[in-house]
Batch of 2 targets.
Target 1
Amino acid sequence: MMGAALAALMLATPALAQDLKLPRQKVELVAPPFVHPHEQATNQAPKIVEFRMEIVEKEVVIDEQGTKFQAMTFNGSMPGPMMVVHQGDYVELTLVNPETNTMPHNIDFHSATGALGGGALTLINPGEQVVLRWKADRAGVFVYHCAPEGSMIPWHVVSGMHGTVMVLPRDGLKDGAGKALHYDRIYYIGEHDLYVPRDENGKYKSYGSPGEAYADTMELMRKLIPTHVVFNGKVGALTGKNAMTANVGETVLIVHSQANRDSRPHLIGGHGDHVWETGKFANRPETDLETWFIRGGSAGAALYTFKQPGIYAYVNHNLIEAVELGAAAHFKVEGKWNDDLMSQVKAPGPIPPKLQGALQTPVKNN
Ligand SMILES: [Cu+2]
């Protein structure tokens, strides 16, 4: 098996980082859309940042109709948590596959170099754990996902096993002219497409375990038409009382990933002031965007300073996916309304009679 041969080769090579006498920092991961506390820039020397993630297979409800779904997750959330480090740091992940799970799993970091992004070195059966270390040698937001082998790869990804790493430049984010950029809040939105089989009557089917759902789900996946496209694991995960919050004048960094399929985020009534559409911070951010593109298998980052209060919808601007399939979120922004930016000059009311008459005048043919 290629994966095993590769793993043996890697094990034969002395693990250099093993001898590194670098400071260590243990970081507790948090469930999205939130992100663990971190410095936006650092003067410190590189370090080894330790994370621990447990793989959780569990049944979840993914929409208002109560549709049940056999999810596979990193740390119990869809997407898995975001890990933040600085360029030049080492990520040291302890990945745990509890014996209560039914499947082998691993992790492929798009931010890491070699061995299938770590996938070849991290395949673990239920009841096993593994420790992987890799150097964060390039800056940006990057997807990670489970990638066991063959058909297991797309299936585990659309079952929920995807997340992101953010590698910040040591001196922080910059605009196109090299001026420092900061954020007051950060939110992580992980979008994914779900394929839930239906019975003869058109009702969504439920299953006792991921394995039982596999055959029907794979048949549906091969047709490439998702039944749900959601932000953070379910329809409504980030709307209404789950809305993300901000205040007028605050700058928010919105990280958006899609591990399998393209998306096109749009903030209705707002903009992307600085957008790293491909998510890589060594490139100049684009400015003043209305909609940006997230390639399947990547993450992007958008920085926006809210200027007006209100409820903003943040959607996948394939509006069918947003409204019918679930790819929508809300930002609830508090503060003072700015009349200069927008005002309703006259409230809706009847069309004045004189104008009505004018509209009814027959058009003359010349
Ligand atoms: Cu998996």
Note: Residues 26 and 278 are 29 Å apart (CA to CA).
Target 2
Amino acid sequence: MSDGSSFYITTPIFYVNDVPHIGHAYTEVAADVLARWHRQSGEDAWLLTGTDEHGQKILRTATANGVTPKEWADRLVETAWKPLLKTVDIRNDDFIRTTDVRHEVNAQKFLQHLYDSGHIYTGEYEGFYCVGCEEYKQPSDLIDGVGEYAGQQVCAIHSIPCELLHEKNYFFRMSTFADQLLALYEENPNFVQPASARNEVISFVKQGLSDLSISRSSFDWGIKVPWDDSHVVYVWFDALLNYITAAGYGHDDEKFSRLWPATHVVGKDILRFHAVIWPAMLLAAGIEVPRQVFGHGWLLVGGEKMSKSKLTGIAPNQITDTFGSDAFRYYFMRAISFGQDGSFSWEDLSARYQSELANGFGNLASRVIAMVVRYCDGEIPVAGDFSEADELIRGTEKRVTDAATLAIGHLAIHDAIAAIWELVDELNGYITAQEPWSLAKDPADRDRLEAVLVTAVRGLGTLAVLLSPVVPQATAKLWTALGGIGLVTDQRIDRAWEWTGGPRVSPLEALFPRIEATVG
Ligand SMILES: [Zn+2]
């Protein structure tokens, strides 16, 4: 049985037919911020990401490029998907590929178990299949084509015609789980979030569920159905199982018990797979359902969903090469309410970089440390009497620590950052009001100067700890400059405000240097 002691969080595993765009990086960063936050809360946090490598679309792309599908997948994993994690500074605990033996063998165990317990039967299927989605489409999912496809019905997502397929297939008796799923959504309102996603899933299941075709026999790039090797497992059925095969299902019971169930962060376009098919599969197998499925919104560029196929794809390194990975992470987590659609623009990124990161946070850190160097030879003062203004800052530190912790519990990353930024703004206002540069002019104000500087240094320490999951590079530098002991990532985030300062500061380079070049 699961002991649920860990915070296990996943991204979707990404399809290796193409290269990453900022939509993929956005999902990775969100899951990584949550994992880092929980790690810093003293939990056993475990972040899984990886790649989905089977299916007809991969086979076709590989063939078109004159290589085997495995060679194609190897190339994309090494040249595109693993580098993406470095580009946006992801600290994942594992990376699973659906071609890993540990996945294939244990996915087969799962399938055999479902077959032996009567959840799978043989049937005939005819339907419209979109190779882009790797999914059979209902007639209501299709729209009228335009241009070269005028007069045909096309996939609403890919704008390409679907193929009419007729196959002998193995089917999963998903229809028998509709009532159990509805009861799950009812009894555990947090199972699918945010509320808009939950409502969509409930109304979908209320229309009734069909059984799910889970095998294909017209091509062979996939996991073999264990009792019939003329069939391979449907790519989504295969892919979803990564969340348990990576966590030890079938081969490491201790690990699986510790990690499972997971929190799944997914784009809302694949919500049904995660909130309907996946829990039905687990219910059939007698495995606990996920802790939560969170469907985030789409990134819009010029009002269109970000995707390579719509030609609006932006490579993450187009942003990080200029602004750095911290700014990428901060911008997307701050500017977009997690769970809602959000628009990306270079202008907004540039403006927030300058006003919030460079002027708001970076400049605050540089000024405070420079004043400690100038007025106290770098030694952090030990202040005696704190004024009301100093105590107010202390109070804000505690308040925003609690508010941010609460927000992260709801996966409201944007609210957590907004709360933390209240401290950035208050500290800036505090420095302006206290005028330490004036206090430094009169030896009679020495005690007051020291109280102001130590208050500002403590505030910065609290910011370093609280912002570490979001901007790990800048906060590591700041922590070192503040004379913090150990790594900032080892500091308890839920007690960030308790830090009372190190012995000395050391010089700090600009955390967010001015960017001269125009971009976009
Ligand atoms: Zn499609």
Note: The chain has a mean pLDDT of 94.
